[in-house]
Amino acid sequence: MTAYDTDNIFAKILRGEIPSFTVYEDDETYCFMDIMPRSDGHCLVIPKTPCRNILDATPAQLAACMATVSKVANAAKVAFNADGITLQQFSEAAGGQEVFHLHFHIHPRHDGLPLRPAGVMGDMEVIKGHAAAIAAALT
Ligand code: AMP
């Protein structure tokens, strides 16, 4: 398996070298907004320690991420009055992965509303507001 690249964009976010909209963090995980949101409230949960994806993550990294996914998903459902949540994880290029630091996509979903296309930059002020709305719904 390819080695972890310490210069991937999420590693830079974790080091504070590029900005992000924080939703939640604890000792082991960080949750921030996706800047090309495919749904209102689209956010990402990552471990603070390095791993590429589901194929090299340790059980401890996965457990920590899932605890945060559960917390944030419930808050996002409340914040967006969502009908459901879609959780996505892509591993390696063939699996659809573009950033090679393990991450889980959380999408608040509404009945009958499809995800938007990938790769379209969002409005940063709107995204900032969505981060605040999810953070406010965290208990
Ligand atoms: P994937 O690796 O295919 O699961 O997707 C990577 C995700 O990272 C995409 O949804 C991008 O929109 C998102 N993304 C890329 N750069 C940034 C960034 N600087 N801040 C937040 N999200 C990002």
Describe the 3D structure.
The protein has 139 residues and is α+β, with helices and mostly antiparallel strands. Helix content is 29%, strand content 18%. Strands 1-2-3-5-4 form a five-stranded antiparallel β-sheet. The radius of gyration is 14 Å and the shape is globular. The N and C termini lie far apart (39 Å). Adenosine monophosphate is lined by residues 9, 18, 20, 34-36, 90, 96-99, 103.
State the CATH topology. Answer: HIT family, subunit A
DSSP strand count: 5
Total of helices:
3
Largest sheet: 5 strands, antiparallel
The CATH architecture comes to 2-Layer Sandwich
Q: Helix amount, in percent?
A: 25-40%
Fraction of residues in β-strands: 15-25%
Low-confidence stretches: none
**Anisotropy-based shape:** globular
Strand order of the largest sheet: 1-2-3-5-4
Structural class: alpha+beta
CATH class: Alpha Beta
What compounds sit in this structure? adenosine monophosphate
Overall number of domains: 1
Backbone CA Rg: 14 Å
What distance lies between the first and last C-alpha atoms, to the nearest angstrom?
39 Å
Average of per-residue pLDDT values: 98
CATH level-4 homologous superfamily: HIT-like
Order of helices and strands: HEEEHEEH
List the defining traits of the structure above.
single chain; 139 residues; alpha+beta; HIT family, subunit A; 5-stranded antiparallel beta sheet; 5 strands; globular; binds adenosine monophosphate
In short:
This protein has helices at 9-14, 59-79, 124-137, and strands at 22-25, 29-33, 43-47, 84-88, 104-109. The chain has 139 residues and is α+β, with helices and mostly antiparallel strands.
